[in-house]
Write a structure and sequence with these properties.
There is one protein chain. It contains 6 helices and 10 strands, in the order E-H-E-H-E-H-E-H-E-E-E-E-E-E-H-H. It is an alpha/beta fold. A hairpin with a 2-residue loop joins strand 8 and strand 9. The protein starts with a strand and ends with a helix. The strands form 3 sheets. It has a 6-stranded mixed β-sheet with strand order 3-2-1-4-10-5, with helices on both faces. A two-stranded antiparallel sheet has the order 6-7. Strands 8-9 form a two-stranded antiparallel ribbon.
Length: 204
Amino acid sequence: MRTAIAILNWNGKTFLEAFLPGVISYSASLAEIWVIDNASSDGSVEWLNKYYPQIRIVENTSNGGYAKGYNDGLKHIDADLYVLLNSDVEVSAGWLEPLVEMMQNQQLAAIQPKVLSYQNRVQFEYAGAAGGFIDRDGFMFCRGRMFNTFEHDYGQYDDCIEVFWATGACLVVRADAYWKVGGLDKDFFAHMEEIYLCWRLKNL
């Protein structure tokens, strides 16, 4: 399947400098890599054009936040799979192959990998951990992270299960399903927007 990694950027040149080289090294043979820029003023686009001219860029005219930024940018990207990847996420060798392979299952609309903390590599990351859920009172939680309590990764979640939501830090979503539900809701400027997207995908 045609796969596009889309990195949303707003004044995040330092993150691009730190993490984009790894994305290119471990992903370029499997996916097109795009940066969707939300009208940055820190020289991000100029830096990309100078040092990484092979990276495709969509330049949004304003900073509409995470949801609107992605919606505006993804309209310009022709792919079967979108990989929404935060600019401050470090990827490792072999990260993308199993995600793309899993999405061959047409019953899946969105998935995420296991996400560990950059500062503490044996601990789950707040943003998504090992898959998200919602309780009957509407509280969001993850395998590996309950509120501000973080588990160490002992391989206890090295499996594939159905979750209620997948993290926007690294969200693999089928493009046709993304647009069928209207994409991300721009009323969520930042945070919770991927949960609402997955809720609507699940309702399909």
